[in-house]
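Thread title: Can someone regenerate the structure for this chain?

I was given the following input by a collaborator and told the matching structure tokens would be attached. They weren't. Posting the sequence so someone can regenerate them.
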Amino acid sequence: MRAPMSWLRELVEVPAGTTGDDVHAALVRVGLEEEALHGGDVTGPLVVGRVLSFDAEEHTNGKTVRWVQVDVGEAEPRGIVCGAANFLVDDLVVVSLPGAVLPGGFAISARKTYGHVSDGMIASERELGLGDDHDGILRLNAKGLDAQPGDDALALLGLDDVAIEVNVTPDRGYVLSIRGMARELALSTGWSFRDPADVTTGSGDGFRVSIADDAPIRGVVGCGRLVARVVRGIDATRATPRWMQQRLTLAGMRPISLAVDVTNYVMLELGQPIHGYDLDLLRGGITVRRATAGETLVTLDDVTRTLDAEDLLICDDEGPVGLAGVMGGARTEMSAATTDVLVESAWFHGISVARTARRHRLWSEASRRFERGVDPALQDAAAQRVVDLLVELAGGTVDELGASVGQVPTPPTIAFAPQDAARVTGAVYGDDEVRAALEAIGATVADATGGTWRVTPPTWRPDIAERVDLVEEAARVVGYDRIPSVLPSPPSGRGLTRPQRLRRNVSNALAASGLTEVLVAPFQAEADARRVGHEPVRLTNPLDERRPFLRTALVPGLVETAQRNVGRGLTDLALFEVGAVFRIEGEHGTDAVPAGAVRPDDDTLATLDALPTQPRHVGALLLGARLAKQPGQPREPYGVADAVDVARRVARTLGLDVVVRQAQRDWLHPGRTAEVLVGEHVVGVAGELLPSIATDADLPRQVAVVELDLDVLVGLARVSLDTATIGATPAATQDLSVVVDASVPAGDVLAAVREGAGALLEHVALVDDYRGADLSGAKSLTFALRFRDPERTLTAAQATEAKLAGLALATERTGAALRD
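Best answer:
Regenerated them for you:
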């Protein structure tokens, strides 16, 4: 929020000599955050001059300049070279004398140019920072400004004013006004404050206004109060007074036209958004209602908007004329032809306005204020202020036609013990000191029994709802410097929990293996969220409308990350992520949440507790070269074997053994997909991405991926990991080749051989998978077996016996036959 110093001085008795930095410091003391100072870019001698005469001179470069004699209130006129030709003799102009500095650090000095010594500069609006007009110099008499040569042009044009900008937090919406900022300045300094809303208000009657929002959406009633006043016979073609234009510009708003500028001026002054309608373009009365699905409205920015059933509208008898609290409609817009104006001043619920503004991506100065809370007792004063200015500046006449519907809500009364301030902050406060602080912010303090007070906050402070809010107010008004700085004694830490430690071990193991950890936002488009076959969770208020769903797996996010990196020339990638995914189990969410301080009933709370489950997964993506091409070594790309190896690495880190078996997934390559199991538990999947998906993402056709349920793996992890020992006795190695049906998974055969061979089998691995014409419909599998007895040296017969036992069980379970 920007507040011109001259405007603040109208409401607060600011001592002479107070600078913008002084005001910033005072506002910081009461909890506001300083941003910047605006204006004050013009310094030095800037005076009014009268053109006495000029001679036009043509030069060899083709340019025509004027050698001007200007009266600047001194004994002798000054000679100035000027390139503009839009002024006449006797015109009043602005003269920057030597020593002046214009915006951008442009210093003025006497200098020789075009054969003359130019003793200053005649300035344009653009050169003074007053606007974009650079067609010629600024003619004060053409602007209706009366002055004499030698008068201070800085004060005349308001160039000596400066705007103080502060950052306004969402709970302090009342500071989005000159009224609110002036109140805070007076609160900090003790300077006297004049409330601009403390005016005698008129009233109107006979204009039909109704609020038809009997069925609030999500517990939100959109409009609580609306005041309408009528002013007739305005001259909308009159120019906005320069002082008003200057204040609007310094406050960060662009002057538009007199009627619009008046409503904006009052909004900035009081914090109450105002809208003006061309009364002749309104049809009938005004109704505040919710939109019907598919209804449309052309807003003031000439955009046709399709409305949602939650949008609150201002309507006449023909249809919508405005998005309540956000932006008016083009059909009833005030223009240069407007003579009669309906002034609307309303209180709209912040949640309703915020949802509409976000839904249509239409943020305005009005919506910004309503979102943060507008004083519900301010509508009459704001309407009266607009009416008075339209009468004064536009020549209008007040009409008795108008309306006032709705009631000013009574703020809640809070039971407060004065000792609470000291108990919460640790500072020592007297009861009188606390009472004075609460009364200074506008609260009403009444004594009650038991040493407690009954405190009623002012209407402009909807953020004060509990005891602790009053403690905060007392602390900031009395001064934060009164709060002692005491370092708390932290409890001794217990370190990481076992699941945290194991998850960290997994991340460390993958990083140590050469994979790069990434952190991907959990928001996805619907197609990506559904790709892995789970029902996605939709967000009510997504940060990005293109990604309104929470992820159900990590792989789609890793694919998007790989796509971005490949596009930047990184063609060999090994990425992994450890993070939460979101799964729906049962019913989730509710539309029955009441607004404000109303506590939801038990059934609603139970529905709110039914959040999506959020298991932690670990995922990895591998593409490009596992081994780069080099002399004597061909390039080896990542493939499904590498994805399986990552799964085994994760399992080994947790002390687990995994087995893999062939599987099918719609988003993975058929024939290159494996389920990962620990015992009977399927803990994840590894394989290669479906080539069409990889191509759509501009990735190589061969992309290896793996995703495991880390929570399940951590739950199955061994309490203590076994340490491998090197056997002291010799090993006996043998091979086993069997023939099985081609449809039988090799993993099933390997599992049967391992189980049947018994305790002597130390290791078994598949070393060959042969499929040839001589094995129609079948395949030959060769396993390498290693046997060892820790107590004695095995004989060949003992190893063979164990091998044949494994073969027997494999034959029984899978139909495997020993290959000749």
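The chain has a mean pLDDT of 90.
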